[in-house]
Amino acid sequence: MTDRMNDFDSKMDSDEDDGCEISNEHMTTVSRHHFGDESDKPSFSISIIENIKEEYGLFVWPCSVILAEYVWQQRDRFPGTNVVELGAGTSLPGLVAAKVGSNVTLTDDSDRVEVLENMKRVCELNKLKCQVMGLTWGVWDASIFDLQPQIILGADVFYDASAFDDLFATITYLLQNSPGSIFITTYHNRSGHHLIEFLMVKWGLKCVKLIDAFSFLSPYKATELSGNIQLAEIILSSEPAKETSASMGK
Length: 250
Ligand SMILES: C[S@@+](CC[C@H](N)C(=O)[O-])C[C@H]1O[C@@H](n2cnc3c(N)ncnc32)[C@H](O)[C@@H]1O
Description:
Helix content is about 25%, strand content about 30%. The protein is of the alpha/beta class. It is globular and about 45 Å long. The model is unreliable at about 5-25 and about 245-250 (pLDDT under 50). S-adenosylmethionine binds near residues 63 and 159.
């Protein structure tokens, strides 16, 4: 269940004198996301600051809600692990991982300062200590070499085909840098194409788990979401699969 509180922090830059027409408005809202086994008694909630005018990194996409719920349901896997979230945007899955005991690094495009700043604000708002860093896919800044995550998260990061190779390069590097690690992603298949399966093979990766996102969501969360969304767990092809095998696209 998600609650949305509008007008949390509305900064009006308008110089209109009738007080009605608003221009250059930076409207932010706070949404609250609840996690728990019983819908009426959540174990905890996470508050996310969103900007309704922003298209990508300042909005909680359905894939993020779904991946965050998966992290909650799989919470036994997370305590004590290093987690890196790629293209984290508003960072809901990473924040849930931090809440259940992971050491979390939230990352997004190094050039998107407003997104990175918002991540810091969201961590403060939820009193969670996460590292926030710029990590642009396919770019090898010094900071990436120190990352050794056991779990890599990515919600709705496969949306622009021209960035897929750069993204796979980063994922593959992180998986190689941390043997035994796994990439868990939620993918909104908007076009129905199979480019991701092809690139996964090209980059020496394999899918060890593929499930329909709506198969594990509780009815009260599922009713608020829609789309052809799948959750995949991906590892290096050279590593033995720990999860039930499944292939992408089926
Ligand atoms: C569709 S949004 C998903 C955001 C968030 N994960 C969610 O599901 O709510 C895609 C995210 O990827 C980030 N992104 C896009 N291109 C990127 C790149 N080349 N390197 C790193 N991050 C990138 C965007 O800034 C944005 O936060």
